From TrEMBL:
Gene Ontology MF, one: nucleic acid binding
GN (gene name): Pop7
Protein name (database record): POP7 protein
Stored SUPFAM superfamilies: AlbA-like
Keyword flag Nucleus: yes
Organism from which the protein derives: Elachura formosa
Keywords: Nucleus, tRNA processing
Region named Disordered: 1-41, 109-145
């Protein structure tokens, strides 16, 4: 007997699983920290378009471009980068300084941000992979950089 022919318009059975990775929510301020000043803080990510981040920062630094917010003077901007975004944050600050003709001052500081424990995997398996941490292991940390940019006037 001949094998049954596939239905018109496709292969029999369910479609193959998608190979696309799902993205989580856009990163914001690290959890546990007080909320940042409204318009003067920029959280740099490695996913966002670099040129768009650069234009946004230039707009915020321009006279009347953005709110000073609590603790932030007009013409002042704070960049925050976490983990893999640290080099991009430094590059963004240097590009802004070069574009301003040296009229911007940079004040950089670094920190270490504790990471949350990974969530339990669906299925509830107790399998541990090499490198997984248990409850008794030390908490993991991630490097962070914070760069304050302000006009050449006292800042």
């Amino acid at each position: 007997p001949a094998a049954p022919s596939p239905p018109p318009g496709g292969l029999p059975g369910p479609p193959p699983p998608s190979r696309r990775r799902r993205r989580g929510p856009t990163p914001g301020p690290p959890p546990g920290n007080p909320p940042a000043a409204a318009g003067s803080d920029v959280f740099v990510t490695s996913r966002s378009d670099f040129r768009a981040q650069l234009r946004r920062c230039q707009r915020l630094l321009a006279p009347g471009g953005g709110p000073g917010g609590p603790g932030g003077a007009p013409g002042e901007l704070r960049l925050h980068g976490l983990g893999l975004a640290v080099p991009r944050t430094i590059n963004l600050a240097l590009q802004l300084q070069a574009g301003a003709g040296g009229a911007l001052r940079l004040h950089a500081s670094t920190s270490s941000v504790p990471l949350r424990a990974p969530r339990a995997r669906p299925g509830g398996g107790n399998e541990r992979e090499p490198g997984d941490e248990g409850d008794g292991d030390a908490p993991r940390h991630n490097s962070a950089i914070h760069i304050r940019l302000c006009r050449e006037a006292p800042c």
